[in-house]
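Ligand-bound model needed. adenosine-5'-triphosphate.
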Amino acid sequence: MKIILIKYGELTTKSGNRNIFINCLYNNIKNALASYNVKIIKNRVRMFIEVEDNIDEIVSILQNIFGIHSIVIATRVNTNTKEIEENALNIASQIDFKTFKVETERADKNFKIPSMEFSRQIGSLILKNIPNITVDVHHPEYLLKIEIREDYTYIYHKEIPALGGYPVGVAGKGLLMLSGGIDSPVAGYLAMKRGIKIECIYFESPPHTSEMAKSKVKKLVRELTKYEPIITLHIVKFTDIQEAIYKNIDSTYMITIMRRMMYRIASKIMENNSCLCLINGESVGQVASQTLTSMHVINSVTNYPVIRPVACLDKLEIINIAKKIGTYDISILPYEDCCTIFLPKHPVINPSIDKAVLYEQSFDYKNLIADAINTIQTIKIRYKENNFDI
Ligand code: ATP
Ligand code: MG
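Prediction:
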């Protein structure tokens, strides 16, 4: 029998909230492993998962769950010397190392061999059977731990690092503005890492934007379901608003007004879906609409906190994260975004709120926003779902 031992991430430092954190992590793990035959046992310091088979798959799923600091696989055997020896040797021969040390903890004092002696016994068995390795008691590459208990003995494999962070959901829910670009999926990932459960909102402008562009966004959402197994995506028809902006607004303010409309619609969706913050991929100075002045003018239409996880990262840093989390290759697919289609040549870099408000009086945006909200399409995308490939 294999046991997976889960070491908690940062949550152990938050003693007041510990139970909430542990329960949230427990539920997330339970949901993520719903299709596997496992038993999960939690306590204040660790979680244990009893696993019958598919251990590699299960470990790779756990490696994407926030709130886990590291994962240790243990083999559970009967407390008898022969069985422990056989399994310890078998485990050690599957792991790649040059130096090692055996450490025994003997909780069951009925087991007659003292810990130090037993460690030496197992150590020399391993030395005899695996070539080109030595014992290093101070800095071993591989620490083989044996825990002898009354019922069973546990032999630990190597520790596998996980993502850390907080369990998704523990901080409440946020709405991620997800375009098909590189930045917003990374922003979503980083928000989830801080324990924010996400829903996504995508603004499309058919026929100016294609079905392919929408599929790309769905694919990005699916990639993010590695960290949150079911994600809700709200798709907003933005064509009428965008065309009205194009017709009525001075070209220098088109992007500013367009983004204010997006924020207004997003705020309504947040209100309807109990989201506590807006999340997006804005990065300070990246484009005209992302100067601090622009952000201020755009931000002023909402009372919700706007979290911009990549605000202070360089583009290269963002790209590196996108590659690590698997969204980069999808993001660079060539399908157009609704912003790029109506992109003016000279967007204002330092807009003013007064001017934005004045321009907005030139068309009936409130009705257009109400229509857009009434025709929202909401779908749920699930982990490994595969019915919208592009
Ligand atoms: P990204 O790489 O995420 O597309 P970007 O650098 O292209 O970002 P903008 O196009 O100015 O920047 O958009 C800034 C942010 O606004 C995006 O990161 C995203 O969060 C949001 N956004 C832009 N377009 C859309 C859209 N069509 N639907 C939803 N959100 C959008
Ligand atoms: Mg973009």
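The pocket of magnesium ion (ligand 2) is lined by residues 179, 181, 337, 339 (CB under 6 Å).
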